[in-house]
Amino acid sequence: MKQFLTLGLAMMMSAAAFAQLGAPKTTSKDTLYIVGVIYNGTQLDYADWPARYLVEDAVNIYIADFTYKKGKPVYQDLYTYNISWKGHIDYYTYDAICNGKKQKVSMVKPREDCEDNEFYAKYIIEDYEFYLVTKRQWDGMR
Question: Which of 13, 45, 135, 138 has its CA 20 to 30 A from that of 56?
């Protein structure tokens, strides 16, 4: 009986040692409204935009019926002064997976001290640059 009990405890401890948290549940999603799109350096007309909004949670970015699953940031530079934004920005680059292919996704988020703080963020996905605002900013524009 002691051997059976010892074996059972050893198996439970072994299972606990290999337990993992896994990906988080994503109940909170941010909807960001697109206010400008650049493709390969050319500004697109509103009628040619691939989407009108982008949805993001802790794990994924959803845009134009595509899902980009973010990995860990491969590069991040926080609170860096940027001349073109005229203030401090946070910059992130992720390796994301979309349709089984690895893609780079970069984000620029201006801080409060930016003079040209009319955007919430700029996302660079494949050959597109998306300029985005929050719902509050969007409502103030209309």
Answer: 45
